[in-house]
Amino acid sequence: MESIDPFLIAFLPKEIQSMFFPFASVQLVSLLFNLILGFILATAIGLHFRKYSSAFCNRQDFSRLFPLLMLSVILIITVVKASLALALGLVGALSIVRFRTPIKEPEELLYLFLNIGIAVALGAGQTLAALVACISTLGLVTLAKKQQVKSYDESGLFLSLNYRPKLNFNSDTCLTKVKETVLKHVERMEMRRFDVGEKHFDATFFVSVIDSEQVDSLISDLKKQYPEINTSLLEQHNIAGV
Fold this sequence. Notes:
Shape: elongated
Distance between the termini: 54 Å
Strand order of the largest sheet: 2-3-1-4
Largest sheet: 4 strands, antiparallel
Order of helices and strands: HHHHHHHHEHEEHE
Oligomer: single chain
Structural class: alpha+beta
Number of helices: 10
């Protein structure tokens, strides 16, 4: 099939041009500028995620996906907005393609939605709105995070307990006793896992402490009640991967 002369296309009515030649309305210079700006904003969002996020994941690897997500959405929105047919086709394609990547933390979803929202604004030509929204959002979140740190000044730790006594122990009330012991020495506590058997128990707690003295007293108290207990601490903000 021979290509149509662009000179002839120029004489066609605009309605026919937009119907049969939707890509002619895409401004390549504007698209390139939005892609570059989107890459910069996605990189800034990734840096913000790595520094201020408390998600239990590999934040460095996860944030590296932000620029690719941003550029992909900008390209899709830029092309789709030029044609109704492409928009309907995109709906059909998205009904087939499904993401199977597990999202474990709500904070991960929020940062993904932020990237998508900024990308949609850039793809729709709202460059100034996207820039203002990104800067103001990151600034407000940073301010809220710093205020939270000043208010609580707490550190998040994952406390893992492993108890394998040589003699049998009473497993009926061990959960209550362990929780009471932990609560005496920490600011806040959330139980994540507790496995108990006839001769053992394994537990995982998320605890918040202010200083290391609280951790020392907690371990000492646990050793007194359960002499053969093994403890493990994982600092929340330095997790290499899950």
